[in-house]
Amino acid sequence: MxxxxxxxxxxxxxxxxxxxxxxxxxxxxxxxxxYEERTAxxxxxxxxxxxxxxxxxxxxxxxxxxxxAERYRTVTAxxxxxxxxxxVVRRRTNSDDEVGYHALTPxxxxxxxVLLVNRGWIPSDGPSQTTFPKVPAPPGGEVTVEGRxxxxxxxxxxxxxxxxxxxxRQIMLINSEQQARRLDARVLGGxxxxxxxxxxxxxxxxxxxxxxxxxxxxxxxxxQWWLFAAxxxxxxxxxxxxxxxDRAQKAAEAADTSEAEPAxx
Length: 265
Hints:
alpha/beta
């Protein structure tokens, strides 16, 4: 009754089914692994945002690489803004996806070290990107700033190309090593995204809290792949039984037709 399973068509179909099952199972485990990774990263963000502020030099120093556990930690620093050495970071967007700049201002600490402070987003001055845009001045004199600690930006991590030959005081990436060479100073590793004090005007526009990755989506994909894997043998069985039933029905009809024909004289 099931000898048709040895046909070329059914052998190919069976082979495809046998290949699909482990492939879908592995894809499900891969999605579950992505779910666990994203959940862990989300937890790091939650823990960092909930932690009490600490002085910046407790977490970073010149040449230090900010770790994933230190990222987004709220830090404080006391010193003064060095607006003469301020630069802008090109091709940055705000919450409305408008393209402009980030204002990056060196902040000289009381001990002489420099902290890079991303003071937020500012709009472009028209279509020209060769002139230095108007950047609202930060508070003068000695102030205390607060912000979220961020790692140095690299092309590998951000996908942003570090273009050369840019207009004066314009950069593509926020990188403490590059700024240390430019300023000829001891620059703390990473930078901070300023959260306080808030600007008096509309700009710079402070960056909002970091978004969290949609880990639940990966969990749903994992379940989906495993359901697909379970559906393959079910579907194969349904097709095989239907084929067997159709063949049996055709054989029965052929037998009935043969019996109904009159015998030759």
